[in-house]
Amino acid sequence: MNRILMILCALPLLAVASCGRNTAVPGGSGLIEATEVTISSETSGRIERVYVDEGDRLLPGDTIALIDTVTLSLKLRQAEAMKAAAET
After folding, report:
1. What gap in Å lies between CA 27 and CA 71, rounded to an integer?
2. Has residue 6 been placed in a domain?
3. 16: in domain
4. Number of domains into which the chain is organized
5. Which domain holds residue 68?
6. In a domain, 63, yes or no
7. What is the CA radius of gyration of the chain?
8. Residue 11 confidence class, pLDDT cut points 50, 70, 90
9. 51-71 pLDDT, tens per residue?
10. Which of 4, 36, 43, 76 is deepest in the core (most CB within 10 A)?
């Protein structure tokens, strides 16, 4: 009987003790390494030259590659010719 009474008294005490606030904030530091980055350009085309190497740090707006402009130049001349033909 004493054992049961002691257990019944201990249970509420344990319940109250476990309701305390945990004020510890988990922390840590480390390095997260990107494995894949998506890049885009304003135009499409064949890459003629790459100016960066893997692992280089870049800022927004940095030039990383040169796109071949031959196809774009041909399309521009064709559009200008079509415009001139439409105006005459």
Report:
1. 54
2. no
3. no
4. 1
5. 44-88
6. yes
7. 35
8. confident
9. 999 888 889 889 999 999 898
10. 76
